[in-house]
């Protein structure tokens, strides 16, 4: 992976201490700002000799020439060929490593058309953890159907969702169910829709990560369209997809479920309340699509998991909605004492506060300069 970087940057990164290199998660290059790495859930700046420091002013500072050379390398010296990826704000390089980009967005009719003046890079290191699935897969099994339940893996960024879903795909495709009652089940056909090229890290269509012998990968394809393509052409028994969240993703998952295919997906959220606060995911939950939710948390280099059934998820969200209905701001009149009941509901309500006129706020007239297509 270090071959990705220009020589002067590579020499600095090669000197990073072994303990940090072995758990390296992110490399952040920002033009004219200190070089930073993330490792084992920790962050540090990097000096020119590779040693680590918490002081930014003491660190190696990449310049414009470093950023320009890095951009040339990750786009294979053809920025125009990578236009679509630049528009999405990241480029996935060989090995499944994703390079996030920050710069100036160029707009076309209100939508991001391109990125220019790119001066920030976040290289996220992709790693395979063989055996990660053994801890989680037994809790996702549907013993009656001899396969998995529809499952959604949930966590904030950088908690191990993609690493887990990759190893789950490998285990299922290999028939490694990690449960004594499933020894004679055999393997299943797995279809991976890999929009960001991170799950399989395909090179010219061939996965470079081990996803098992019965896995087909649709690389660099939008999730919703890819799910439908898999259903039409590859007859998968299980579809694996990363980072769902849009309405079209939810609709495609509905199609897959009603076609008799099991779905294994991931999504960004910290808790159930966050998850169900996202409209598309809330709709999936309300229709009972997912039989299990797997929540991941990091404790240093260790990843912990918690499996929540669909029934328990519904109970938790119902209690949360009741607390929201009954909630009263701490500074509202009568907040510290007994609260009146909402008529006919049996629930405590908020004190009635009379409306009052708001003061008029006047601002001095300001001339706005003409806009441009750059934002």
Description:
The protein is α/β, with parallel strands linked by helices and 375 residues long. It has two domains: 2-124, Beta-Lactamase (2-Layer Sandwich), CATH 3.30.450; 132-322, Rossmann fold (3-Layer(aba) Sandwich). The protein has ten helices and 16 strands. α6 packs parallel to α7 (247-258) and α7 runs parallel beside α9. The longest helix has 17 residues, at 310-326. Mean pLDDT is 84; it is low at 322-375.
Essential attributes:
seven-stranded antiparallel sheet, globular, seven-stranded mixed sheet, Beta-Lactamase, 25% strand, disordered C terminus, Rossmann fold, alpha/beta
Calculate the terminal CA-CA distance, rounded to whole Å.
Answer: 33 Å
Structural class: alpha/beta
Main beta sheet:
7 strands, antiparallel
Named CATH architecture of the largest domain: 3-Layer(aba) Sandwich
| SSE sequence, one letter per element | HHEEEEHHEEEEEEHEEHEHEHHEEH
Q: Report the C-alpha radius of gyration, rounded.
A: 25 Å
Number of strands: 16
Tally of distinct domains: 2
- Average pLDDT, rounded to a whole number, is 84
Which descriptor suits the 3D outline?
globular
Number of helices: 10
């Amino acid at each position: 992976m270090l071959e990705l970087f220009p020589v002067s940057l590579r020499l600095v990164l090669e000197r990073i201490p072994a303990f940090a290199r072995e758990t390296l998660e992110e490399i952040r290059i920002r033009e004219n700002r200190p070089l930073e790495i993330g490792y084992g859930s920790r962050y540090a700046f990097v000096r020119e000799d590779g040693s680590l420091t918490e002081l930014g002013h003491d660190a190696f500072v990449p310049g414009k020439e470093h950023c320009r050379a890095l951009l040339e390398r990750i786009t294979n010296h053809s920025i125009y060929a990578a236009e679509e990826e630049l528009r999405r704000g990241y480029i996935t390089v060989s090995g499944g490593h994703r390079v996030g980009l920050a710069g100036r967005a160029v707009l076309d009719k209100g939508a991001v058309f391109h990125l220019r003046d790119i001066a920030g890079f976040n290289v996220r290191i992709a790693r395979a953890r063989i055996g990660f699935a053994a801890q989680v897969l037994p809790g996702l099994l549907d013993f009656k159907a001899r396969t998995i339940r529809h499952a959604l893996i949930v966590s904030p960024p950088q908690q191990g969702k993609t690493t887990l879903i990759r190893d789950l795909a490998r285990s299922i495709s290999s028939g490694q169910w990690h449960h004594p009652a499933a020894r004679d089940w055999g393997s299943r056909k797995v279809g991976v829709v890999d929009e960001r090229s991170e799950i399989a890290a395909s090179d010219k269509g061939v996965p470079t990560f081990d996803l098992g012998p019965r896995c087909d990968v649709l690389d660099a394809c939008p999730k919703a369209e890819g799910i439908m393509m898999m259903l039409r052409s590859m007859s998968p028994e299980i579809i694996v997809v990363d980072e769902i969240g849009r309405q079209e993703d939810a609709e495609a998952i509905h199609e897959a479920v009603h076609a008799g295919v099991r779905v294994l997906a991931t999504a960004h959220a910290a808790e159930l309340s966050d998850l169900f606060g996202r409209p598309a995911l809330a709709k999936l939950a309300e229709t009972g699509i997912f039989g299990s939710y797997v929540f991941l948390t990091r404790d240093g280099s260790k990843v912990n998991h918690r499996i929540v059934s669909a029934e328990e998820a519904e109970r938790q969200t119902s209690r949360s909605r009741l607390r929201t209905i009954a909630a009263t701001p701490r500074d509202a009149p009568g907040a510290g004492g007994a609260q009146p009941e909402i008529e006919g509901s049996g629930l405590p309500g908020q004190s009635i506060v009379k409306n009052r006129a708001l003061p008029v706020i006047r601002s001095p007239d300001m001339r706005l300069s003409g806009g441009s297509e750059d934002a």
